[in-house]
Amino acid sequence: MGRLRRRGQVSTANAVVTARIESLDHEGRGVTHVDGKVVFVEGALTGELVELETYRRKPSFDLATARRILVASSSRVEPRCASFGICGGCSMQHLDARAQMAAKQRVLEDSFSHIGKVAPETMLSPIHGPSWGYRYRARFSSRFVHKKGTTLVGFRERRGGFVADMQSCEVIPSRVSALLIPLRSLVDSLSIRTDLPQIELAVDVNCVALTFRILEPLSAVDEQHLRDFAESYEVRVYLQPGGLDSVSLFHPPGEALLHYALPDSDLEFVFGITDFTQVNFGINRVLVRRALSLLEPQSGERIGDMFCGIGNFSLAIARRGARVTGIEGNQALVNRAASNARHNRLEALCEFKPADLFKMDAGLWEELGQFDKLLIDPPRDGAMDLVKAIGAAPPRRVVYVSCNPSTLARDAAVMVHSHGYQLRTAGVVNMFPHTSHVESIALFEK
């Protein structure tokens, strides 16, 4: 091993670069410098001395993998999954759970500081739960591989478009993990095995549901294979021959809807196989509990739930006695939210309306009427148009649930610098353990 340089602690020998890792980036990769150039290193942790191999060079940075760990971090742990490092589903199994949470909190704080130029007055304790078997929704790829003579079913590899050769998966429930190999045999038995690119997983309190995306019609023999699989493994099989509106229950006959609960609020939710729900039901319960504690809904208040989906937050707010108006761009979800309100006997306190919140302006905002408080739970793109619009009639308290710290920080800048809100507190939510995904929640007050 050659002599180490000061910046990045770099040397080269036999085309192998030895480097000291300086930090982790927002995707969980190690960051170092080689001859003054930034290098992102998969599989490396802060403080480690590693031998790295570059696999892609770009003008301003390089991408590399850690071939060998020379000096390991005290936070390094043995990954539980045999496919870790190949499968693209997880990126942080080699990092201790507490260190994962600390890394995600740094991402949130850095986003507020660098993007929004804001800082919370306090930081909330992280929300976390079980690290394994937590993922109740997933999308598996299915591909027949001629060289292997079989179909692979699983997540895609970390790099490239190949399907990972997974025997099991530690982040999905064990009863689903046990289906990965039988699913290979099932798809292999079908006449359309090369025209079945995707299998969607949804798990509820009662069943495992699998939606098969099919590009060609099934034969009668194919249909029998699917029925046999559903009965042998006690799963529901759905088929998707076209767009999302084409999904239907195939076998067994009966109720096509799924369910989850929020016991703290005595709520049961019914959802369709294509409806959006959180992948981690356990963390969702804690997240709703925290959102309620920050929002403090009171009887008689009028509260808006923006991007309300099937009513996940709306009904919990209404259970506290507040009047809730839920706004959602997807009419099917609006209908489902209204149905869930009736199912839980909260229809008198809830109304749900369709609106494109990505095209909100001050005029449309005023038409909704004055809200005492607001909950915002947007997709990754954030809620810029909505956040700009609420300045025309600002609620006194806003709870913002985010799945993207960059867009949360961007929107926080408008809330604080343009509308005069105070960013009281914020914290991370470990919705996806062992991944770099950062869910978070923030409270703004006038």
User: How much helicity do the residues have?
Assistant: 10-25%
Protein structure class: alpha/beta
CATH topology of the largest domain: Rossmann fold
CATH architecture of the largest domain: 3-Layer(aba) Sandwich
Strand content: 25-35%
CATH class of the largest domain: Alpha Beta
Give the strand order, joined by hyphens, for the main sheet.
8-22-23-21-20-17-18-19
What general outline do the C-alpha atoms trace?
Answer: globular
Low-confidence stretches: 1-14
Give an overview in words:
The protein is α/β, with parallel strands linked by helices. The protein folds into three domains: 61 residues, OB fold (Dihydrolipoamide Acetyltransferase, E2P), CATH 2.40.50; 194 residues, Rossmann fold, CATH 3.40.50; 120 residues, OB fold (Dihydrolipoamide Acetyltransferase, E2P), CATH 2.40.50.1070. Helix content is 24%, strand content 29%. It has ten helices and 23 strands. The strands form four sheets. An eight-stranded mixed β-sheet has the order 8-22-23-21-20-17-18-19, with helices on both faces. Strands 1-2-6-7-5-4-3 form a seven-stranded mixed β-sheet, with no helix packed on it. Strands 10-9-11-12-13-14 form a six-stranded mixed β-sheet. Strand 15 and strand 16 form a beta hairpin. Helix 1 packs across helix 10. The protein is globular. It starts with 10 loop residues before the first strand and ends with a strand. The N terminus is likely disordered.
